[in-house]
Amino acid sequence: MTALFALATAVLWGLADFGGGLLTRRLPALTVVVVSQVAAVLVLGSVVLATGAWQEAGPQLWFAVAAGVVGPAAMLSFYKALALGPMGVVSPLGSVGVVVPVGVGLALGERPGPGQLAGIAVAFVGIVLAGGPELRGAPVQRQAVLLTLAAAFGFGTVMVLISHASTGITGLFLALFVQRVTNVAVGGAALWAQTRRGTPALPEGTGPRVLLGLLPALVFVGLADVAANGTYSLAAQNGPVTVAAVLSSLYPVITALAAFAVLKERLRSVQAAGAGLALAGTVLLAAG
């Protein structure tokens, strides 16, 4: 089950990142973060009420609050980096945050077998290559690299925190709700401060109409992201964190495939090779 949940996480994160990156080319990154997370809050609030998940409240929810503080900063950095591009560098670099949960798992005494260690190594190389690292061509802005690395370690930290925020399904709903409420509170405060300083929440010359037009995509990004957090938590609770973290970090493969399907971007040889290695690493991890 760990492999299944972790792979579902990779699909959801890959699609959410693809959508978020596209939206940030139309809207300010902070607006994308806040609006998409509001959609997640509304859906999760309904689920919490319907399941009675509020009864699972306990000290472990502080992990969800912490994840909610770190998450918006990581998403904002990543979406800005995706907008700066090139995505072929940003996407694979974003996966290096996997070292955080893997390191925590090893510190807690997890010891992957030889097959799993080989799978981790092969999958990680595949993740980087699948993003299609652009070794030639337009230079990469230093700001894009720094933003991506900050986002990567933020994502890794959120993975660790959210996996400790609940112990059951209903508790997970509550933890994700608390995380998203915190996301909106932190991101909303930052957006308000930004507008007070004169930076508009929407592109100049546009009004709420552009936001309404993009609302379905914003809702999708928010729900895909929160669903990915949920499936990752289930993966980490049902098996080794090291395995869950690496498999979940296959999302650059999904982002590259989404770009191919939607934007008709051609997969380069390095990307195809990376996807093959990532698949091979997945098989090794699942078999281990």
Please explain how this structure is put together:
α3 (61-84) packs antiparallel against α7, α3 packs across α8 and α8 (169-196) packs across α10 (215-237). With 288 residues, the protein is mainly alpha-helical. The protein has 13 helices and no strands. The protein has one domain (2-287). It is globular. Residues 3-130, 144-285 form the EamA domain. This is DMT family transporter.
Pick out its properties.
288 residues, mainly alpha, 13 helices, 76% helix, globular, transmembrane helix
- Main beta sheet: none
Helix count equals 13
| Number of E-type strands | 0
Strand content: under 5%
* Low-confidence residue ranges: none
What structural class should be given to the helix and strand makeup?
A: mainly alpha
Q: Into which percent range does the helicity of residues fall? A: over 70%
What Rg, in angstroms, do the CA atoms define? 18 Å
Global shape: globular
Total count of domains: 1
Task: Estimate the mean pLDDT confidence.
Answer: 80
The H-and-E topology, N to C, reads as HHHHHHHHHHHHH
Q: Termini distance?
A: 13 Å
